[in-house]
Each structure stands twice: as C-alpha cells, then as structure tokens.
Amino acid sequence: MSLCTGFDCSVSIGGKAIKTIGDVTFSQSRTEIEVKNKASDEVRYLSGLKSTSFELTVQAGTDPADEGSVDGYKLLLDMFENQTVKEVVFTNPDSGIAKTANMICTKFDASEPLDDLATASVTLKITAQGTTA
C-alpha cells in the first residue's frame, strides 16, 4: 500500500482528479481482539485492523495541467460537512499501482491567508458504503 503514497501520488475522488500539495501519507493501526472458547475457557488473542487513514494537503482551485481536475478543497470540504462517503483512488504514476477505497473525510483543517490560496490538511479514513432503506 505504501507504493501509492508520496509526493508524486495522484488522487481522484468520485472519478475526478484533485491537486495535492506535498506528500500523501498512509497509516494503519491494529488492536488485539480477545477470543474466548466458552467450553474450555481458553483465551487467545488475534490481531485486528483498527483503522486505516490517508493524510494529504489540498489547495483551493483546479490543476491547470489537468483539464479534468476539480477543486479538491471544495470537494473535500463538502465530504467533511455532509459526511459523504466517496470512492477515492490513490495512484503511483511511476509504477501504475492504484488503490481504491470508499472513504470519509474525518478531519478538515483549513488555512485561508489573505495573500494566498486557501489550503486544507485533511484525513481520509476507509469506511463501508452506507445504504438507506
């Protein structure tokens, strides 16, 4: 999975390319799960995935080099405010390796200086696609 991160990683959300600034970083954490056999009272511990997240920084505006790009700042702000699940694809342009997951935006830290474009540091976490009946 780490092959899809770094400075050259490209990111698309809902099929639309967004411009990132700097590195895209990936982290995972595990927790132990206690499993008990009721018949023998034997206890075992298994390792379970606790969370998986991607950290990236986006700048307001579109990427002039990519005609299909969208304003990642606005798209991620909308994901954060409306708690929207979107399909996100991380691609390493050198190897062509791509990873796809349904994700939610759990952090959106905006910086809006008067003399420059707005930026946001965001955290995306893998989630299951919700359904409504």
Brief rundown of the structure:
The protein has about 130 residues and is mainly beta. It is built from one helix and seven strands; from the N terminus they run ββββαβββ.
Question: How would you portray this structure in words?
Answer:
The protein has one helix and seven strands. 19% of the residues are buried. It is mainly β. A seven-stranded antiparallel beta sheet has the order 2-1-5-6-7-4-3. The model has no long low-confidence stretch (mean pLDDT 81). The longest helix has 11 residues, at 72-82.
Count of beta strands: 7
Strand content: over 45%
Report the end-to-end length measured between terminal Cα atoms.
34 Å
Largest β-sheet summary = 7 strands, antiparallel
Sheet with most strands: strand arrangement? 2-1-5-6-7-4-3
- Low-confidence parts lasting 5 or more residues at pLDDT below 50? none
Helix content: under 10%
